[in-house]
UniProtKB/TrEMBL annotation:
GO molecular function: transmembrane transporter activity
TM helices/strands, residue ranges: 42-63, 107-129, 141-165
Keyword Ribonucleoprotein among record annotations: no
Protein name: ECF transporter S component
The entry's keywords: Membrane, Transmembrane, Transmembrane helix
Protein source organism: Candidatus Olsenella pullistercoris
Pfam families listed in its UniProt record: ECF_trnsprt
UniProt cross-references to InterPro entries, sorted A to Z: ECF_trnsprt_substrate-spec (IPR024529)
Superkingdom field: Bacteria
Length: 178
């Protein structure tokens, strides 16, 4: 994929990272539960690589906060770090995981990024953003229980979207037909 296409993917996904949360936040509390900003960040990493995923993860929350006030300023730094890790790791794993099956590659990369992002996010909360007042219970509740519907949403929609983009010829095929 050309560098121009990677930038376009990152820009479109960053824009989706602004629009999708606006839709979900129409229902109070739905953003924390459904994690709508995670979806375009993961797609960017899986489709366009680690640099684009990282850029989307950095840009989407900052631009969304500036444009809509969501995420709120106190949450913005930790959410930006978390999303940057999701985008970076999904892109890194996508570049290196090759099982011979597109969907399997994507799910391994997606789940790996989801786990690493949550681990890093929890570590940053414990060490920097909420140092001294963050517990394992808070991490489990915040990163897994509250966001369980969002985790399910990511597992249900991200891989089919990436597969559809590839089948439509909008992104290069991982396993070109011989």
């Amino acid at each position: 994929m050309s560098q121009v296409k990677r930038v376009v993917v990152a820009a479109v996904c960053a824009a989706l990272g602004i629009v999708l949360p606006m839709l979900f936040h129409a229902v109070p509390g739905a953003g924390n539960v459904w994690l709508p900003m995670h979806v375009p960040v993961m797609i960017s990493g899986l489709v366009a690589g680690p640099a684009s995923g990282l850029a989307t993860g950095l840009l989407a929350p900052v631009l969304s906060s500036l444009a809509t006030g969501m995420p709120a300023a106190p949450i913005l730094p930790s959410m930006t770090c978390e999303l940057a890790v999701y985008g970076l790791v999904s892109g890194l794993l996508s570049a290196h995981v090759r099982t011979g099956a597109l969907a399997r590659d994507l799910y391994v990369s997606l789940v790996g990024a989801m786990l690493v992002g949550r681990l890093v996010g929890g570590a940053l909360q414990a060490l920097i953003f909420s140092a001294g007042s963050y517990s394992l219970a808070a991490w489990g509740a915040g990163y897994f229980l509250t966001g369980l519907p969002g985790i399910a949403l990511q597992l249900v929609v991200v891989v089919p979207i990436v597969v559809a983009l590839e089948r439509a010829g909008l992104v290069p095929a991982r396993y070109p037909a011989r």
